Request: fold
Amino acid sequence: MKNLKKLSEFAAPSGFERKLGEYLSEEFKRTKSVKSVYRDRIGNIYAEIPGKSKRKMIVAAHMDEIGLMVNYISDKGFIKFITIGGIVADILPNTLVRILGEKKEILGVIGVNPPHAASSGKKEIKDLFIDTGLTKEKIEKAGIGLGTPIVFETSFSNNDNVYIGKAFDDRIGCAVLLHIAQEIKKVPDYTILLVASVQEEVGTRGAQVVSLSNEADCAVIFEGTFAMDYPGNSPDDWTSYFGGGPAFTLMDGTMVSDRGFIKEIENIAQNRKIKYQYKQPRNAGGTDAGKLHLSKNGMPCAVIAAPCRYIHSSYSLLNKHDYESMKKLGVVICEDMKSEIIEKIF
Reply:
């Protein structure tokens, strides 16, 4: 839980991942398994674990989270904003946010009328604003202006076996990468390239750089996905089940998974007695696999995600058992995946 809490509370919206990347780099360097750590020019972080063969497997997760960005400050100090990544206006009114000024970080509340004076009608992003209670002069003195990023101000907590926090999409995946580096015991058949990518939420841009600059035989992407098993949704639309184990993607809006590769991972999970499930196929959404599987001659990809309720909002719920199973699965995939798998599949 310690890793996840630390990662969840980082402020790192798309395009502003540097501090988180520096933290992950230092943590990778502390491990015995990782032999080299480097960063590319867009900000992706790479940590290499040498294997028995020259074959390479990418294991990836994205660092960035959804957020907001300042696009106007009124004379009275009210801040208008645009979204970074997929956010709907419905979740934003009365949300506490942190504005990441260059000189000082400031808290603000996304304004909403009280019920006594509430106006009717559905709100859009353009109708909303952030109220810090400060003057425009004080806001600008904090180094806040056009383009300043904003994140949800959320503290990590838990109810027994349920974790509550922000940015589980995809700090869960980042925690899996750290766990692999810290806990892998066997020299893997593949050389493992752990990749913490940037700007996934705004178009998998970091993954595109990875796909153009790295050759690998296959890739496994660890994610946080949406579980919809709660009131208001019918069982045939629940996507994945909270507490059902890590969910394997069969198809999303950017990729149809290679079934042979998925089957090999399923065999590993069964042999190691790790609970898992399949995510309901959808013609929507996407992950870094959407870019990675198109690399050069093609790269078989598997996406494994922890089901989370209410992702892309200020608070999400994660089942501890799903999280622990996904961390364990990350390690055993690296330890058990055989280098001849590509020939077997193709």
